[in-house]
Every structure is written in C-alpha cells, then in structure tokens.
Amino acid sequence: MCSNVTLDLGAIAIRFLLYPPRLHAGIVSVDAADAGDRVLRSFRLALEQRFPQLRIDDIGYRVDAFFRQYPSLHQWYQVVLDEQGIQIHFYQGAPWIPLDGFERWRDVNRWLDPDCLICLAFARQFKHPLRPGDLRHWDVYVTCDDALLSRNVERLPARPGSGIADIHTHLEGCECMPLLWLRLVNGELPRERFAFYRRAEAERRASNSDALREWGGEVQAIRHAIRARHALMRSQHIPGSAQELDGMGSSAETQWLPHEQLLPERRLLSALWVRLLQGRLTPPEVLQLDRYLYGKHLFLRRHVQSPGSNPGLENFRRFFDRARPLTPGRSERLKWRRFMSMVHFAGASPNLHSIELRISPLESVKEYVRFLTSWQKQEGRSPLLRPRKDDGRPLRVWFVIHLIRSRDDPSHPVAFGRLRTQLDRLTGVLQVFRWRHPSLARLIVGIDVANIERNSPIDVFTPYIRLLRGDGLGDDRAGETGLADSPHLSHWRRVAASGMHRPPWQLPRLGLTCHAGEDFFHPVTGLRTIWEIMRHGRMGPGDRIGHGLALGTDLYRFAALSGNTVIPAGEALDTLAWCSRRLRAIPGVDERALRVLDDEIDLLSWELYRERLTASELYELQRQRHRSPPSRLALRGVDHKVADLRRLELYDHECRQARQQLRTAPDALETIKEDTQRLQRWMLDEIARLGIFVETNPSSNLATGDFEHLRDHPLFWIREQNPGVRLTINCDDPGTFATRLENEYALVVDAARQRGLDPGEIEQFLESLVSAGDRALFHRAD
Asked: What is d(CA 507, CA 64) in angstroms, rounded to the nearest whole number?
C-alpha cells in the first residue's frame, strides 16, 4: 500500500505514525505544540522525496486534508482501516476479516501491529475493554471469513476425515513473533538475544552513517517502548503474565499456549483504546501508548517477512536468523516450554487434523531417544494434542528430518567434502536409531532437503537419501550398496558391518520431499533440479516436491524482470546439457534451437575443462555425480573421459573455482523460451504420471518469489496446463510470514477470484487442494 504510486489517506497515516521526528517531538495530535508545524513541514518534504512522481501541490493538499479530518492518534490508526475498506467482525469468540478485504489487511500488517488495530476496532464497536470470556477463540492471528472457504476446510464431526492437513511446516520457523515481543518487554529475553539489536550489528554498520543512525534509533525506540509498557501496565492495573490471568478465565493447563500468553497484551491495548476514545487517558499516558506501539511496530517489521519483500532465500535467511538464537539457557524444562509453544503455534488451527513438522537431524541415537520420549510425555499433557471436544479426534503430529544445504568450502580438498562428511554421519545415526528403536522411529515419517538451493547441488544428497530409503547407490533399481568405494561413507560402512544398511523391516519406507525449483538462478536450472531429485532420488507415488515454482514460472515475464541473469559457469553448462538431452525427447522442438544449445555447450565446456564435450558426455557426468564420490586414487585408475572430468570437479581446485565463477546466463536459454515451456509441460506430465505431489506455500512464495501478486503464482498455470498434478497448500514458516493454514487457503481463493474463476471452479479447485493435502501425508503409507 505505502509502496504504490497512489498516496491515499491511509498511506499518509501509516507514514506519519512511523515518522521518527513525530515521535521525538511527542506529537499525538496536530495542534499539540509549536514544534508540530516544523515536523509537519518536514513530513511533507519526506513525502515529496518518497513520491517524486506526484505533484508537490497535490501532496500538500492531501496532507492538509488528512490533518483537518484526522487530528489525533486514535483517528490516525482508524483511518488506516477505513481508507482500505477493512472491516473487522466479532463473532464466535474471535475477530474475522471478510475475504474481499483480507489481502489489504495483510498489507496493513506489514507496517502496524494487527493486535493494536483489532483492539481498537473492538473498543469502537463495544465501548468496553476485553472482559473474561471475550474473544476466547482469538488465536495468534485473525482468521479470514468466507462461506465457501469455511465449507471446504472446516473440521466437522459429521464428516469423518474432514479438515485440513499441513505437510510443509518448519518447526524452527514457528517462533511466534508477537510472543517473542512480550518475552522481550517482560524481561524474559534480553534485547541482545536478537541478532539485529546486538552491538555487532552496529559495528557492521559503522561505515554507513545513515544505517548506523537507523540502528541506534530502533534500539532506542525498543528501550523506550519497554519502559512505556511497564508504566502503562501499572497505571491500568493489568497483570503482566499469563499466570496472573485468573480474571480472564485462563486455566493452569492452557496458560502457556501462545494465544493465552497474549491475553495480557490484548487486555491492555483494549483498555487503553477505550479510555482514549472516552477522553479519560491523561496526556502522559497517551504519549506512553504512542511510544509503546511505535516500538512494537518496528520490532514486528524487523522480524516478520512481509509479502513483496526483496525476493530470494538469502533475504529470507536474514529474517529467519534474527530470532533463531533464543534457546533460553540449558534448562530442559525451558527448552521444552519453547518447543511446545512453537508446536502449538504451528498446530493451533481448529480445522487442522494432521501436521508434519520438519526438524533438524540430531547428532546421536541417544538424542533421538531423549527427544521422542520427551515428546510423547509432553504430547499426553498438551490440551491441543488430546481428543477435541467437537469431534473427539486429536491433532496428529509427525516429524520429517530435513537435511540442510550449505555452500562448498573452498579450503576443503574435496568439493562439498565437509557437507558430505556431515551427511554421512547424520544419516547413519538416523538409520541406526530406526533399527534400534522402531516404536519411537514411527514418529519420523520422511526426510527432506532444505535451505538455499543455489550453489548446493542436489547430487551431494542423493546417495544418502537412497541409502536411507533402501535404494542403494547403484543405477539399477535393485541397488548395489557401493559402500567400499567412497571416503565419504565411513559411518555407513560401520552401519553395514552391523547389518543395518538396509531400512528396518518393521518400519514403512521413509517418504521423500525436497525443496527444489524454488531458489534458482534461472527457471531452467530450477527445472533441472526438480528432474534430478525425481530421477536420482528415486521418487515415486506419494513423494513430494517442495515449492516447485520453476514448473510454472512465466519465462517471458522472468526475462523481462530479471534482465541480465547471472549464473555460475558450471551450473550453466549442466543446464544446457540437460536441456539438449531432454528436448530431443520432446516432439516438435526446433532443430535450430538444439544446434544453438550444442554450440554453447561446445564453447563453455572448452572454457571450463579445456575439452570440447558433447551433451551426451556431460549428461553421463551428471549421472555419475549422484553416486558418492570415489577416492582420488580410484578415479586415477579409470581410463575414461567422464571419470577424468569427475576427478577434476572433485579434487582440482582451479576447476572448482571455474565452475563457481559467475557469468551472464547463456543466450541459448533466452532463445528457447517456447521450447522450455514444452519442457515445463513434459515435467508436469511426469509428475502427474508418477503420483508426486507439489507443496505450494503462498505467503512464503509471495515474500521470497519474483511475483508481486498471488494471482501470478505458478500454481494457477500448473493447474491450467495439467489438472492431474496434485497441488497442496501449506504454511512453510508461519512465524516468519505471520500466517496460519486457513489464511493460506484464503489467499489462494482470493487470487482465484481475481483471475476470473467462477464460484464453481473455485470450489472444485479448493476441494482438490484440501484432498491432496490429506492424501500427501507420509504416515498414510502405514
């Protein structure tokens, strides 16, 4: 909203509320002090600089009109809702946003705390603060209100198996940011535990005075907000923690749940808004409220990644890592309190019947036993995981172990040697645990490959994936083990010596899901990654592709937006060779396009290897990469061109550097766009034929992807091209993206309406999404 060319009154209100000179001058109404005139003039100047495409007179007229109509603090907040046409309804013990205003609501939440706005709307409608029992079903985030949506996602006793499933949620991305804010202001967490507020961040910004000033201003605003909140809690006689909320109807059993812990905050905000609307809040208290809300807005903006932020997973990692080091000491009780809080945040939806949570691999068999035994104990105590009153069914929680991609360490003598050694150890430990403790291991239903896709090829992971799933390391389906050939399988050799190299017969085959086709240099490189994990990871019915955006990316739009795409030379050559091989199998491909590809392959292979290689030779090289790398001595003894190339890639430092060297994407990738669309359709046909699911994550993709509106999401193109592809809707990292599963479905329904689908088509599409999410659960293979 504020980033658009149009400058409506709501956008002016948001910018003025977040304008630092206004806060420093203590302006909570336009006629508060003489200093207000100077602040207003500087505010107009700031808007002129931010919106140079608008006439200066027009900006001045809008600002003057804004302050004439809305002169005080609560009106500045209210106009944000009014100008955007956002209605907040209260019924069934919770706030609801109609679907036609839900996208605008999420856009407003990029700037302002949603609880602040909801409490203001409650105070305006009901003229009293929250009382015991009010809004008891208000979860962390507000829910979208839509009849069609409710009809398809609700969990009903009369419909066995009804409800929705979430099969792609990272537990470490379930930090509830509003709850972290309360832990900060209540003194449970020092400010330095958050990455952005550490002194190291100031030192990093020391060379840029503006950046350093921004850091100092935000740290000071957080400090002032903490002091202001303490003063307000005392003045309003509001309890400061969930344990003190006897008057709010909380029980000892539920007080540690995220939405229960948010009750003091919501009670405070509603009481303050009521008193302010009635004129009973003193001027110092109004200033304290203003300072508190300003600091909270800044904190949430800093830690929640909003739609339309800078695309790419590197930017996502900055949001994700800002609040990661928050494990509160070494106390097991506190760790489990935090862990269960994240689980309840991830599974809080009343319509959720099953969820698969992705967790990092553990370091030893003992740690797996301790973790899963503790989980079973906590599961029995949790009100969320017990049979629910409406239908008598509990929420079912399962775990998927995600293996983490990382970049190559150039100092290591072997390409991705450190990562291979780590994978050997972690997957070997998981295999031994599954053999020794099958009853506990039933809770682990799948494996995943996650994190930044660029510069971390999937072939590093496929040997360990195949071992865990019982497919061996050979190229045939029977699968030879090949454990003696590689220096990066030492743990697996010990596992084999104990007779545990095959998956335990008591347990089902582990499901496989892989983040692929999400974070690509070029859509064709994303397609190649998807194909490689499908082919060499031995994917079959019930396995899943995470995100898979490359399957439906508009190549023409991508070229227009990205300009001169850069790509590592090795990645470019591999992609050209793969395209040449795959396109030859698709009828109707222009022979001239294939010759262009072969010419580029000839030039680039000479640049990297000092040999002119064919697409077939490079394709065979790619196939060999998916076997665990043999020792340098073993490769020397093989008189074969592909083996020699493999030796160079693994052990020759200059070759490794040359392959990582960035260069402009080959012209051939731009000249074969039409043929590449044929390749996309062929990939969709293969995915549908194999029974593979594609996990889509609307909020995540909207924040990190290269499209501005959800109506441009590739899932719609995929559906139009091949309705047989099984698409699911998921949350990904609900804490980082401030979402819940019903809202992800709501965004898709709203985007479908914007694309012109009629209600019947939308309902059919929605039914297919809900059904696919249910059928894609790995534990159903039991």
From this structure: 70
Task: Judge whether 206 and 214 are in contact, CB under 8 Å.
Answer: no
Nearest CA to 403 out of 466, 484, 311, 347 is that of 466
Q: What is the pLDDT of residue 251?
A: 47
pTM across the whole model? 0.93
- Residue 1 has a pLDDT of 41
Alpha-carbon distance of 776 to 544, in angstroms, equals 8
What does DSSP say about strands 164-170 and 143-145: parallel, antiparallel, or unpaired?
unpaired
User: Is the pLDDT at 289 greater than 90, yes or no?
Assistant: yes
641 touches 620 (CB < 8 A): no
DSSP for 423-489 reads HHHHHHHHHHHHHH-HHHHTTEEEEEEES--TTS-GGGTHHHHHHHTT--SSSSSS----GGG-TT-
**Amino acid at the residue 337:** R
User: Residue holding tokens 């690509």?
Assistant: 520
Q: Tens digit of pLDDT for each residue in 427-446?
A: 999 999 999 999 999 999 99
As given in the structure block, the two tokens for residue 750 are 């709203």
pLDDT digits (tens, 9 = 90+) for 343-390: 999 988 889 999 999 999 999 999 999 999 999 988 877 777 777 666
Listed residue (562, 547, 649) closest to 605, CA to CA? 649
DSSP 380-395: HH-STTSPPTTTS-PP
> How much is the pLDDT for 255?
55
Give CA–CA dist 630/646, Å, rounded.
9
Residue 267: CB partners within 8 Å, gap ≥ 6? 129, 130, 238, 248
Q: Which of 550, 516, 518, 509 is nearest to 533 (CA)?
A: 516
Would you give the DSSP letter of residue 544?
E
Decide if 187 contacts 765 (C-beta within 8 A): no
d(CA 716, CA 554): 11
Beta bridge partners of 170: 358
- What whole-number distance in Å separates Cα of residue 384 and Cα of residue 396? 10
- Give residue 412's Cα distance to chain centre: 31
**Stretch 293-298: mean pLDDT:** 97
Residues 83/8, Cβ–Cβ less than 8 Å: yes
pLDDT at 704: 85
Whether the CB-CB separation of 138 and 270 falls below 8 Å is answered with no
CA 109 – CA 103 distance, rounded (Å)? 10
CA atoms within 13 A on the CB side of 85: 8
Tell how far CA 219 is from the center of its chain.
Answer: 26
Nearest C-alpha neighbor of 1 from the set 158, 109, 139, 157: 109
H helices of 278-307, where? 283-303
CB 617 within 8 A of CB 642: yes
**Contact predicate 468/447, CB 8 Å:** yes
Q: What is the C-alpha R_g of the chain?
A: 28
CA pair distance 230, 292, nearest whole angstrom: 10
